[in-house]
Specification:
The protein has 144 residues and is of the alpha/beta class. It has one domain. The protein contains seven helices and four strands, in the order βαβαβααααβα. Helix 3 crosses helix 4 and helix 5 packs across helix 6.
Length: 144
């Protein structure tokens, strides 16, 4: 059986029909606190794969500080990512959280069984760093 494909996008791209996703892909949200309009754009959500609340909060605070210093939205976001060690902390979350491990294993199994998946969150990764990229790398590593 052929392995399913793995894609990713952001919710605004889906809402505005800009997402280039396989037609058969299940849209899996990976956000901690989805809004009602987020739920409308995805088929399901795995909040345990979203960044931990305290990490999101420290990221938000750092980005706000940087915007006050004159950085644009994207610049502040990306600088805050580095300042709070977002990538490293999120990778630790994936390694140490039993819930995240179980959710990752379930997605890996679904891919292995031939289901195509698209990871979805809020950030446009052409402009901003995003945990979705780390999550996709983790799932792609499972393939090899």
């Amino acid at each position: 059986m052929a392995r399913g494909t793995l894609a990713d996008t952001y919710v605004a791209a889906i809402q505005h029909d800009l997402a280039d996703l396989p037609a058969d892909a299940t849209r899996v949200g990976v956000v901690r606190q989805p809004t009602s309009w987020f739920h409308a754009a995805v088929d399901e959500n795995s909040p345990e794969l979203g960044p931990p609340a305290d990490l999101l909060e420290s990221m938000r605070d750092a980005a706000e500080d940087m915007k006050m210093q004159g950085l644009c939205e994207e610049g502040a976001h990306n600088a805050a990512w580095e300042q709070v060690g977002f990538g490293e902390t999120y990778r630790e979350h994936l390694e140490e959280s039993d819930e995240a491990q179980a959710a990752l294993a379930a997605l890996k199994d679904r891919l292995a069984s031939g289901e195509s998946l698209a990871l979805v969150c809020y950030e446009n990764t052409e402009k901003k760093r995003c945990h979705r990229t780390i999550l996709r790398e983790r799932l792609e590593d499972a393939e090899s």
